[in-house]
Amino acid sequence: MTQQSSEQIIEAQRQDWNRVAGGWEKWDRFFDENMTFLNHRLVADARLRTGQHVLDLGSGTGYPALLAAQAVGPQGSVIGIDLAEAMLTAAGRKAKTLGLTNVTFRTGDVTTLPFGAGSFDAVISRFCLMFLPEIPKALGEITRVLKPGGYLAAAVWASPDKNPYLRISIDVIKQLIELPPPDPEAPGIFRLAKPGDLPAIAQQAGLLPLADEEVTAEVVFLSARDYYTSLMDLAAPIQNLLATLSASQKSEAEHRIIQAAGSYQRGAGIALPMTVRFVTARKPI
Ligand SMILES: C[S@@+](CC[C@H](N)C(=O)[O-])C[C@H]1O[C@@H](n2cnc3c(N)ncnc32)[C@H](O)[C@@H]1O
């Protein structure tokens, strides 16, 4: 398989996430209900205080930028940056609904940040860094734009075995077609899953690693079909895998994914375990 250049990976990311932006808006309330604690954790890890200036990388539809804007208050500010304009349009709408005037969203690439040195008290990011073709370069940029003593707080996915929420569909696709063995260096959902990986890259970029912790929780769907629908609506990387199946393989995949999710029935819902890695680092004072 020919290797994609960084530019090609970034362009593919932009198209992928723009394509699913409508789905993210549709499922917004559901994700807010299931994953708000992740935003609170990032706000706490970054030690956000009133009046601070914060950058959110790969903000998407506004997580965790919107909570950070509430945390820093009107004297502070938050900028959310993302490749996908359609995701940011949704984020802007949410900021307006919440009456937040101290958060702005702008398109851009995390690996070439359009900000001066020492612009931010903190950099936060939820589920973005593993999709970058040049993670060390991005960490260099984060280090540059942080003020001395500023914090980086990032959430990335932990390994597939601890993430049935994400793994179920990938396992089913693997039963139906042969996928190339995953390149551990290639950008993707689990690229930063290994303990110590992201802290080591942060350290090489000049940050002091402070914490690297896995947190397990559950995403609760009303039904196994709802889980499948959510994948179809918003999981861009999984959609790309499903797109390689024939029509009959696709309907078999749908059947098997719903069946597999059904085995996580608890009470009236489907409780799918997920595990998130939280990494914190600080720029030396
Ligand atoms: C899984 S979504 C996460 C969105 C949001 N942070 C959340 O947790 O809901 C990943 C986001 O990262 C963005 N992204 C991927 N590569 C990027 C890059 N090089 N620069 C900026 N944003 C990027 C995508 O456009 C997408 O909106």
What's the helical proportion of residues? 40-55%
Based on CA inertia axes, which overall geometry fits?
A: globular
Order of helices and strands: HHHEHEHEEHEHHEHHHEE
Separation of the first and last Cα atoms? 45 Å
CATH class of the domain at 6-159 and 187-218 and 275-282: Alpha Beta
- The DSSP helix count reads 11
Q: Average pLDDT, to the nearest integer?
A: 95
Weakly predicted, low-confidence segments:
none
CATH superfamily of the domain at 6-159 and 187-218 and 275-282: Vaccinia Virus protein VP39
Question: What small molecules are bound in this structure?
Answer: S-adenosylmethionine
* Main β-sheet description: 8 strands, mixed
Describe this structure as you would to a colleague.
- This protein has 285 residues and is an alpha/beta fold.
- It has a domain at 6-159 and 187-218 and 275-282: 3-Layer(aba) Sandwich (Rossmann fold), CATH 3.40.50.150.
- Strands 1, 2, 3, 4, 5, 6, 7 and 8 form an eight-stranded mixed sheet that branches.
- It is globular and about 55 Å long.
- It has helices at residues 6-19, 21-26, 28-45, 65-72, 85-98, 135-145, 164-176, 197-204, 224-234, 236-242, 247-262, and strands at residues 53-57, 77-82, 103-107, 120-126, 146-157, 208-221, 265-266, 269-282.
- Bound molecules: S-adenosylmethionine.
Structural descriptors:
44% helix; binds S-adenosylmethionine; 11 helices; alpha/beta; 8-stranded mixed β-sheet; Rossmann fold; 285 residues
